[in-house]
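Thread: quick sanity check before group meeting

JM: Hey all, I'm pulling together slides for Thursday and realized we never actually wrote out the predicted structure for the chain we discussed last week. Dropping the sequence here so it's in one place. If anyone has concerns about the input, flag it before I start.
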Amino acid sequence: MNLVKKYTPVNTFFIGLVALVILNASSFISGAISLFDVISTLIYGAVIAFVLNVPMKKIEQYLVKLKVKAELRRPIAMVLVFLALILIVIALLVLVLPTPSPDY
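JM (edit): ok, ran it. Output follows.
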């Protein structure tokens, strides 16, 4: 039985990589945080696109009933969804932001 473990180049590479990460932990942590910031932005965009796609499909189905040209359905639905989103944001801002007092 061979009790001495053979270190192959792959094992040596991973041992060196682990040592490099341990010695430069702060650099790797800051790099991981930067990478997470970029990835989180992409995830937010994907979630927004997924959420806005649901009403777009419903509007497209309604536009099919109105016999709108096929190449115009998606853009019209997109514009309507964005307008609805802008109106919702404005309505929320009007409800949440305080009004200035007349004594000012």
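AS: nice. Residues 67 and 73 are 9 Å apart (CA to CA). The chain has a mean pLDDT of 87.
JM: adding both to the slides.
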